[in-house]
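Aim 2 progress. For MFS transporter, the working sequence is reproduced below.
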Amino acid sequence: MSSSAPTRPAAALRNSPRQVAMASLIGTAIEFYDYYIYATAAVLVFNSQFFPKADPSAALLLSLSTMALAFVARPVGSALFGHFGDKIGRKRTLVASLLTMGLSTVAIGLLPSYDSIGLWAPILLCVFRIGQGIGLGGEWGGAALVATENAPAGKRGLFGSFPQLGAPIGLFAANGVFFLVSHFLGAEAMVAWGWRIPFLLSIVLVGVGLYVRLTLHESQVFREAEKAGKKLNAPVTAVLRKHGLQVLQGTLIMTTTYVLFYLMTAFVQIYSKSPVGTSPAGHATGLGIPANTFTGILLIGAIVFGVCTSIGGVLADRIGRRSWLMGVTLAIMAFGLVMPGFLGGATAGTVLLFIIVGLGLMGFTFGPMAALLPELFPTEVRYSGASLAYNFGAIVGASVPTLVAVSLNQTYGLWGVGLYLVANGAMTLAALALTRETRGIDLTMVQSA
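Predicted structure tokens for this construct:
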């Protein structure tokens, strides 16, 4: 009896696979929902709500530019929450990141318009957008670690795909809510006040997420590192000093994933919904597809994205992270080369096919990331290292691709946009070629250099 007694407390503190799946998935789904409703509103609504209406084109560019603020803020969230996640644990840090994101989103839903408070409207919008970025910057790393540090042997890729499923679920939910609001209230009411409904609904989702996460136990991997005295006073400094190469590799590995996603969900949305016309250089600038038609297309794409995310995680367990991701990256580069053929003079049907293929490839590359990035770092700096790599990738690959793609399309046409994706794919391919295979490593045995 004396030999069995010490094992009981540890066993009682272990999370079941169901707990791990739910806690890692539901939080990221809520956070990505918050993030995507902002992106949708920035394209459809914010230009008229929070900026002067004298120049519609300038207002749209300003509205899209606010999206970039969150990407700049995300590494700040990575450093802040990564510091506490590596010092006090994953669970409490995840609760704090969820609250930061959720409260910022609700605040945007309550924000008065430019007509009501003038310049304060865009200023406060920027402040709350930064809050969203800080929250998501801390969210992903913690959710990825909850999944991978609690995963059964040989299934880190599969379990790592659970937090990644938050992205397609959040994308589907965000576009679904906007679709319903527009359908039942009409376009005018949606622009005037209906857009606030998706933002205010976030408070309900945050409550559900908090309940699920507060029932979670700290991971055994972290508790063992804590017991062994491996916790550091300044984990962010340590990861940049000792593991800077791994942070750079992780950043470049994530870059193409982000570029592809924002081309699919933002650039193609603008291109599809814009009236048929040409730029001064003679290139097509729009397809004139109705807004709700494209939203329906994106909902179908989100389902494909989710299915392929799970498949990507499973195949990365079987084939290996490095080999699988190198193959998918080559396929993404080929996809960039055929972009003009897909979208040049496209109909709603060909846009749907384009979105299905693009978001399918996105899922294949996105699924394994929550396993690969944490595997690059030892336990005592894993939260900080994985979060920084993921969110630096967001700055390089997601903060400006929509603006860059719009500009490239006006000057060079869709060939310019496709080659932009190819160039980013080449960087990712080089980073993967220089990265070791991590599928078989033991997370408890990864040591600092």
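DSSP finds 23 helices and two strands in the chain. This observation will guide construct design in the next reporting period.
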